[in-house]
């Protein structure tokens, strides 16, 4: 198992190594020591690597991730897993603002809390937060799922498109055009699948409420289509 | 961008390490702003005496002249400690107004960085590593301190435009963000008698808090009222003689992370700034909430979080 110690090794060398995995390599487990809040740790991976980061990271950890499974044994700074394509990123501590922003696929799991703008402009990513999330989360979310076991801050799901939101705790306020919706059997199934994939146990899907777009904003009105 | 750091010691045995710890924190934040850097240190207090920290672009000639004038004005009760472009005049607290009047008569040859019983401010254009070494910040001890490295947006890259800003005795503020109603607010504060040295938005925030505290509010209450009256983006870290506060605007897009142990409370724009602090691995680390006032005071048992 290759180990990189960022106390002595260069971050660029680490990311270069992760980007140039020789074809046919069996040893796909990487360990990263002493990240000490470094930015851009393990960004842009495109192989099915299994990366364990031992400590807190700074901005953009796991950004643009495809295929890789990245576990951070600590907290993450702003923009963790931003624009993730596939794979899995697990943050064992808290995450700062805009976690999983613009993500197109894969799953981001945050075992602690996420700050403001979690899942902003999400486009297919699944995000599971075991703690609370901050204000303006899932703003303009286009697709994917945001699951929150704790509470949500102000203006949840403002200007939402088709992203689906599940919150177990309280919601401080809903954003424009975001409404609570009925939990039908297919939503219980989807939620159960997401919770299982995220490794969350001990909660029932019946404890959650579902939120989504009321589809009443300008862009949902067919009468506005001839403006173009 | 801009990078800000702050350290408030609860365990006084760390006092001698304050300059070292704060310098390391600030230097780590260099890539958040390379334009200028500054640091405020709350050091030893001598009863009945105050420090006036001054700056000159021509220290060699100006400080010799200043020292002579200070001796003439205050007599034996004064001293001048020169550190590169800065100097700290120590005078009886009752004579501070006279010293300021004398400085005003020098036609801008000497600028006042700070006035206070314990606080000294050192700031210059340049990188944090150069600024902390010019003023030998690492050797300084104290109870708490605040630092800033600037990426300028709202006013020129000059010594006076660097942070921290001090607009009242032993009070200082550093700011990451930009205010949008500072011109109006400056006019109102001027009418109340506040004095401004720059066109900088952050100086207005500092003066606003000074004015509120003059009205009798404590630091926590002044920060709470700032949420109503200041418009724009801000993460502030502020210091008073015995207190330390943090405030973020409701949108909170400017980064902030805090750590607390039995020994200290620390603030950084990023976690990287905190990694060298003692026992950081076991600290409580959290991101301060938007619109929430955090402050600690070593005298009042008033340390609390006020959710707006």
Folded structure, characterized:
The complex is a heterodimer of chains A (228) and B (308). Chain A has an 11-stranded mixed sheet with strand order 1-2-3-4-5-6-7-8-9-11-10, with helices on one face. Chain A contains 2 helices and 11 strands. Chain A has a single domain (3-227), classed as Glutamate synthase, alpha subunit, C-terminal domain (Pectate Lyase C-like), CATH 2.160.20. The longest helix of chain A is centred in the last third of the chain and has 13 residues, at 185-197. Chain A is mostly beta strands and 228 residues long. Chain A is globular, with a radius of gyration of 18 Å. Chain A has helices at 11-19, 185-197, and strands at residues 3-5, 29-33, 50-54, 69-72, 88-91, 107-110, 123-129, 143-148, 164-167, 178-181, 209-213. Chain B is α+β, with helices and mostly antiparallel strands. Chain B folds into 2 domains: 3-43 and 125-307, Aminohydrolase, N-terminal nucleophile (Ntn) domain (Glutamine Phosphoribosylpyrophosphate, subunit 1, domain 1), CATH 3.60.20; 46-117, Alpha-Beta Plaits, CATH 3.30.70. The model of chain B has no long low-confidence stretch (mean pLDDT 95). Chain B is 25% helix and 33% strand. In chain B, the strands form 3 sheets. In chain B, strands 7-2-8-1-14-13-15 form a 7-stranded antiparallel sheet, with helices on one face. Chain B has a 6-stranded antiparallel sheet with strand order 9-10-11-12-16-17. Chains A and B meet through loops of A and loops of B.
